[in-house]
Amino acid sequence: QVQLVESGGGSVQAGGSLRLACTASGRIENPNVMGWYRQAPEKQREFVAIMFTDGTTQYRDAVLGRFDISRDNAKTTAYLQMNSLKPEDTAVYYCKYRRRFGSVEVGDTYWGQGIQVTVSS
Question: If you average pLDDT over residues 18-35, what whole number do you get?
């Protein structure tokens, strides 16, 4: 099993910045993918950004150019630097971990507890 602990959320004004962090512990296997999803009230959880252990990243179009995902050298912590925040970025952000085998994801998907990001206009 894998545990994901998130930090760094909060409230900011539109145009501001926040940085989220997610640290994975437990049964960590490589390669893997870590990233961020978000869920606004009464909406489906949606993909935001992911980063593979080889450094490859993918972003949701709506955050491209504003958000930057990174991982530490041990690849156990994922960060999401969020700049130029907009009210529509308001959501609970969830960290995701899943191991990979070759080019495919395998095994259980693990989620963090969720952390609130609120952007006011």
Answer: 96
In this predicted model, what pLDDT tens digit does every residue of 43-92 receive, in sequence order?
999 999 999 999 999 999 999 999 999 999 899 999 999 999 999 999 99
Is there a contact between 92 and 114 (Cβ–Cβ < 8 Å)? Answer: yes
**Whole-angstrom Cα distance, residue 39 to residue 47?**
9
Residue with tokens 């006011």: 120
Q: How far apart are alpha carbons 14 and 23 in whole angstroms?
A: 27
Residues 6+ apart with CB under 8 A from 85: 12, 14, 15, 16, 17, 18, 66, 117, 119
Distance, in Å, from the CA atom of 78 to the CA atom of 41, rounded to the nearest integer, reads: 24
